[in-house]
Specification:
It is globular, with a radius of gyration of 22 Å. The chain folds into two domains: about 230 residues, Glycogen Phosphorylase B (Rossmann fold); about 160 residues, 3-Layer(aba) Sandwich (Rossmann fold). Strand 9, helix 11 and strand 10 form a beta-alpha-beta unit. The protein has 17 helices and 13 strands. It is of the alpha/beta class. A seven-stranded parallel sheet has the order 3-2-1-4-5-6-7, sandwiched between helices. A six-stranded parallel sheet has the order 10-9-8-11-12-13, sandwiched between helices.
Amino acid sequence: MPPTPLRICFLTYRGNPHCGGQGVYTRHLTRELAALGHVVDVWSGPPYPRLDGGVSLRRIPSLDLWNPEAFFRRPRFAELRDPINLVEWLSTITGGFPEPITFSRRVARLHRRLPPAARYDVVHDNQCLGDGLLELQRRVPLLATIHHAITIDRNIAFEAAQTGFQRIGVNRWYSFIPKQKRVAARLNCVTTVSRASATDIERELGVDRRHMRIVENGVDLDVFRPQPEVERRPDVIITTISATAPLKGFRFLLEAFAAVRAERPRATLKVVGQDGHKATNRRIADLGLTGAVQFTGPLNDHEIARAYAEATLAVVPSLYEGFGLPAAEAMACEVAVVSTRAGALPEVVGTDGEAGVLVPPASSKDLATAIGQLLDAPDRRRTMGIAGRKRVQSLFTWQRAAERVTEIYRELIERRRTC
């Protein structure tokens, strides 16, 4: 007799399908959970995720103060009568980012009001880590996914800040971290996406390693696939990183690309995403790269896959990655990869050199050398691309992730039943 399907409440405080990894993780994991026969409801704050058939969405409204169409709007007095809204507004206007915490409190309040027939078998939190989770954990088996220790983002941003005022801003923005650390250390079960992340979460957030399980991310292999009908363009380097986030190491890639251009004047760097801010554009101009660095603007998954199909090779210059989805997606498209060995990237790319080349993080010289060598080696790039897709097919699929997560759900439910 097959196992009974589960009723799953999946939480994501932000579900933006086009920015950051939370929307990607939410969409693909919940789709595969539903394909296994489970009933999956996603509870999300704005911006809301794009979900596939079989998965329902419950919108959890917030003040939505970061909405670009009403940026930092002034809430109505009636809205501020809600104490959760008041906390969100006061923290935001003083430079904080309270959304993960306030989202968890709204969710806990709504769960209190659920009638017995509407209650869930398990709740799965996607890294909000707000204190409302502790209340939920007392009521229902709860699993939290922590993709990586957010303290690392804060530390890198602090080191990149150039003035005291900027450092104060960094500390204020990440003011939610102490509360998240207290919550994370009290959770009964945490999943993360790599061994590197597990080590960092234990050290940085105080989560007992015995309470952690590793469930690697997946790649949508139907979208990110080879496209032999698309001609690869010579000397086109592609990267899918935020040009403005210090964590992503874009400045080192720019310096490396300048060295590559000195030998290959026709080389271009395609950046999947928005234009950089003024400092980034000044740096591009100072390096003599104006016109050689092309920002695509926002692209959907099919457009990104097409961009990979046209590229000569992909570069991931990050200073840290809890997993490294861009590397895995490039590999799935049979694109050779040059990556730093920061964080979990060696777990994704592999350390044997078959699917990609690993270099030290924060080293423009090593990046430039590896890029130049691969641009000169078309046969090696082709072999790497084939090996990369095989690696992703065997290790990084969303079906595999959903099956492993389901095992953990049932483990938690059984533990609750026998306690």
